[in-house]
Amino acid sequence: xxxxxxxETQFYKDSKVTVTQSxxxxxxxxxxxxxxxxxxxxxxxxxxxLPIAMIIIGGxxxxxxxIRVAGGVILLIGIxxxxxxxxxxxxxxxxxxxxxxxxxxxxxxxxxxxxxxLNDAIIHRG
Length: 126
Prior knowledge:
three-stranded antiparallel beta sheet, PH-domain like, 33% strand, alpha+beta, rod-shaped
């Protein structure tokens, strides 16, 4: 925790996010800490049905005589997509106007640091 001008306690700061005792500032929005009632890490689960369908279809195509090459290509593309799809994590804040995802990233540790700082700021606010 650092102290900013005007005796404002800073709980977290990076190039995109600042958390102080009175404000939560992101690239696109500023929230007043007094309006934030709770905060938590929210996992955004990506849909994996397309690559799974591609794997199944590609596997079935491998059984046919004239379409093995196409089946192998579809199977490999499906596996590649499945491996590359990553869930995302968000800082989900609850305010008097509802819930919102304020920052979204694939890096869960980064999101957790912001959530911890926001929780510290809420506790500090009292």
